[in-house]
Amino acid sequence: MIFNKDTAEKTAELLLQINAIKLNPGNPFTWASGWKSPIYCDNRLILSFPAIRNYVRDEFAKNIEKQFGKPDVIAGVATGAIGIGMLVAESLGLPFVYVRPEAKKHGRLNQVEGFLQKGQNVVVVEDLISTGNSSLLAVEALRAAGANIKGMAAIFTYGFDVADQNFKDANIDLFTLSNYTNLLNLAVAKKYITEEEEQTLREWNVSPSTWNIEV
Question: Model confidence over 42-55: pLDDT tens digits?
Fold first, then answer.
């Protein structure tokens, strides 16, 4: 679910402007999972544009407090959400921790890095939601450390049905600054893509794991 429509449209436009989101239906990208995709999203680019990263920070801070109430801690999912998560925590005057994909194999064997007390209320910040699996692994690690997860806030989601189900099963409320539907609507309106390319992008979103597979 998006925080609000105005933010969703503005965020989508900014991501397209800096090529954090690239749309290329005619020459699909290959994800690490092996899926073919007409879209690629790299929200790390936001950190290189001060005005845009400040906009994302401020929208997160405002909407997180409005939607979840002010938490005790902001947690970022490594590595993509560490930078923006720190900015959000700083804006809200809150402690920050981040969550590794898995526990370290040496030293203190930490998976959650930073100071976190059992029972503290945590909002998790993520940069991108695809299936939601890696994001929810971070939630599991925080819960194992004793955190009370108020919810997750992400910059962008592809809006896959499987992600919606995964978050529902994990009992986690997910809110995003923007999403795939708002992105496509804006991309057509601003002529980033043609109506034919829009159709391709919508077809992919229905079944991303099988799209563009030759039979």
Answer: 999 999 999 999 99
